Amino acid sequence: CHSDIHQVRDEWGGSVFPMVPGHEIVGVVSRVGSAISKWKIGDVVGVGCFVDSCRHCEACKEGEEQFCAQGMSATYNGYERKPDGSLDTMRPTYGGYSSRITVDENYVLRIPTGMPL
In this structure, is residue 109 part of a structural domain? Predict the structure, then answer.
């Protein structure tokens, strides 16, 4: 997506470096947390522009995570979340061109079996 180029060049301002761009990702689940039952290792999945949000503010409750009051966690050029839900500005998110990415289970979509990657 051309937005990756804009972000790398910081043409829109606010780029977080170091940066690994890439959103709208397809990949294979390599690990899951102990409380996760929706996904298993080997599942083929897709991820959009976000990997997390607070899910407690009015915008998140209305399905408008891009307007999260605490800031949504973008697939890249954003920040991971602390256990209290606030953004951890010391831990940037790295996108789909990285070797691995951590995504909250609610921001993962199943890719149909047999669909070519």
Answer: no
Residue type, 98: S
CATH assignment at residue 70: 3.90.180.10
Q: In the numeric block, which tokens belong to residue 64?
A: 């408008």
**DSSP helix/strand/coil, 11:** coil
> In sequence order, what are the residues at sequence separation of 6 or more whose Cβ sits closer than 8 angstroms to the Cβ of residue 88?
79, 80, 81, 82
Residue 55 lies in a domain: yes
Considering the domain boundaries, does residue 64 fall inside one?
yes
Q: List, for residues 64-105, the tens digit of each pLDDT value.
A: 988 999 888 888 888 888 888 788 888 888 888 888 888 889
- The model's pLDDT over 36-63, given as tens digits with 9 standing for 90+, comes to 999 999 999 999 888 888 888 999 999 9
Taking the C-alpha atoms of residue 96 and residue 90, their distance in angstroms, rounded to an integer, is 20
